[in-house]
Design brief:
The chain is α+β, with helices and mostly antiparallel strands. It is built from 10 helices and 6 strands; from the N terminus they run αααααββααββαβαβα.
């Protein structure tokens, strides 16, 4: 087994969210797929751990051993949304507990329990990767322009005005501030542009 090194994991973390997720998956797949002898040797030689140094997602989110990062965990795609921050739901706690039991007793039962926990966390990470890949494939919206028109999420008609012309108007239903649209503070389904309509009418 060519175990993922801390250097490889750190490099993947630097490449971005998806490379970090894929590296995290590969790391847990190695724990899931290793033979009992391979895993014992890796644990004894310090080549396999479940901690920040061996987690590309932790490193990508800014989580370090020195700063046990509540804020970093909030940014991590493996964080389960909720009142408490939990990595991969409660699956990380289970796989970490099973690894600790395995370290104390390398029995077949503990080995099987650990690999079952690793299999569950691999399935979880795979689904997160699928979700993140789907987000990246979504077509990007064209940037809004002055005098675009359309409808907001509540079905209200909106006319987009340039920031310098907007003023109090952007707070009123019927208008939208260009700056707010560009920064996703106001989501408008753009249907057309008044200036384009004027140009088209002159061609007729």
């Amino acid at each position: 087994m060519n175990w993922k090194t801390k250097e490889q994991i750190a490099a993947a973390a630097q490449e971005g969210k998806l490379p970090a997720l894929r590296m995290s998956l590969e790391h847990h797949q190695q724990g899931r797929d290793a033979t009992r002898r391979e895993l014992i040797d890796a644990i004894e030689d310090g080549l396999f751990r479940l901690n920040v140094d061996f987690c590309a997602c932790c490193k990508n989110a800014g989580h370090t051993q020195m700063a046990m990062g509540y804020l970093a965990c909030q940014k991590c795609p493996l964080n389960e949304p909720g009142e408490d921050l939990t990595c991969c739901g409660d699956l990380y706690l289970k796989v970490n507990a099973s690894l600790n039991l395995l370290k104390k007793d390398y029995s077949n039962a503990n080995f099987d329990a650990f690999q079952a926990a690793e299999s569950a966390i691999c399935d979880y990470i795979s689904k997160v990767i699928e979700s993140e890949e789907a987000k990246e494939k979504k077509p990007t919206k064209k940037p809004p322009r002055h005098l675009d028109w359309g409808y907001d999420n509540w079905g209200n008609f909106r006319l987009v005005l340039a920031e310098k012309m907007c003023g109090e108007a952007c707070r009123q239903v019927g208008f939208g501030c260009l700056d707010h649209c560009e920064n996703s503070l106001l989501d408008i389904d753009i249907r057309g542009n008044i200036l384009d309509l004027i140009k088209d009418s002159k061609k007729c």
